[in-house]
């Protein structure tokens, strides 16, 4: 299946311009959009693994644990709860898709490759952060506001 039917870049009515990875992680609008996208992506991966359609809501615990394991938790303010950490993951994952850092097929493949959901999302986050750094889009360690 071609990923071209899922491209948003050419038709999107908004621009995503951020100065730091932290700014992306803290963006509430991206997090809201990312919530639906992350659940869709994981549902696709689990449907592929199980061989039949499933709809899954990824828990905040899984996403927050993956954020910590990927080493990105340090980019958030000290006192943010698990839900805000999950929002940060959702914001980053959807940003990466919209900006062509990673496509849906790659995301599904990375998630399917791991039995453990935390490990799967950790791998996805690490892949995104590394690609963003290599593309020079945003410094993966930037703490700017």
Write structural notes for this entry.
It is globular and about 40 Å long. The chain is built from six helices and no strands. With 145 residues, it is mainly α. It has helices at residues 21-25, 28-50, 60-69, 82-98, 104-112, 117-135. The protein has a single domain (19-135), classed as Orthogonal Bundle (Ribonuclease iii, N-terminal Endonuclease Domain, Chain A). The longest helix is centred in the N-terminal third of the chain and has 23 residues, at 28-50. Mean pLDDT is 86; it is low at 140-145.
Provide a brief overview of the structure.
The chain has 145 residues and is an all-alpha fold. It has helices spanning 21-25, 28-50, 60-69, 82-98, 104-112, 117-135.
Summed over residues and divided by their number, the pLDDT gives a mean of 86
Please summarize the sheet with the most strands. none
Give the class-level CATH name. Answer: Mainly Alpha
Radius of gyration: 14 Å
Overall shape? globular
End-to-end Cα distance, whole Å, is 39 Å
Give the helices and strands as they follow along the chain: HHHHHH
State the fourth-level CATH superfamily.
Ribonuclease III
């Amino acid at each position: 299946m071609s990923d071209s039917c899922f491209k948003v870049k050419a038709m999107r009515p908004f621009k995503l311009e951020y100065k730091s990875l932290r700014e992306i992680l803290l963006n509430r609008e991206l997090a809201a959009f990312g919530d639906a996208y992350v659940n869709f992506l994981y549902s696709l991966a689990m449907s592929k693994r199980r061989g039949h359609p499933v709809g899954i809501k990824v828990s905040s615990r899984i996403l927050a644990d993956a954020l910590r394991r990927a080493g990105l938790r340090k980019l958030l303010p000290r006192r943010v709860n698990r839900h805000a950490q999950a929002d940060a993951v959702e914001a980053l994952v959807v940003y990466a898709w919209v900006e062509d850092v990673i496509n849906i097929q790659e995301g599904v493949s990375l998630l399917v490759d791991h039995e453990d959901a935390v490990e799967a999302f950790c791998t996805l986050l690490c892949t995104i952060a590394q690609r963003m750094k290599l593309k020079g889009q945003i410094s993966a360690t930037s703490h700017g506001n």
